[in-house]
Design a protein that fits this description.
- The structure is a single chain.
- The chain is an alpha+beta fold and 89 residues long.
- The chain has a single domain, classed as Alpha-Beta Plaits (2-Layer Sandwich).
- The protein is 39% helix and 38% strand.
- It has helices at residues 13-22, 24-30, 56-63, 66-75; strands spanning 2-10, 33-39, 46-53, 77-86.
- The protein has a 4-stranded antiparallel sheet with strand order 2-3-1-4.
- A hairpin with a 6-residue loop joins β2 and β3 (46-53).
- α1 (13-22) packs antiparallel against α4.
- The longest helix has 10 residues, at 13-22.
- It starts with a strand and ends with a strand.
């Protein structure tokens, strides 16, 4: 398992959260388990998600899924997310 940290800005957190919740199936199919969600103190529309995935290929597959692009647009994601893939030591 690898740790995944995703950070991105959204237009409106409440609107984004509805779309995020509705996209659970795609995360499950990819094997991506999000364990924590954070909002920036300085910008409540800056979201950071922390979770685990079986490996880099699972994350790459999830990130390249056309359904994710649609969900990101619908959820008001601004720009491309910053993605960090980490191995626990």
């Amino acid at each position: 398992m690898i740790t995944v940290i995703l950070t991105h800005e959204v237009k409106d957190f409440s609107d984004w959260k509805k779309v995020y919740d509705a996209d659970e199936e795609n995360r499950v199919i990819a094997g991506l388990h999000i364990s924590s969600m954070y909002r920036s103190v300085d910008n409540p529309n800056m979201i950071t998600l922390v979770g685990e995935a079986p490996g880099m290929d699972a994350v790459k597959g999830f990130m390249s899924n056309p359904d994710l692009k649609v969900a990101m647009e619908k959820g008001g994601v601004i720009g491309m997310p910053e993605v960090k893939l980490l191995n626990k030591v």
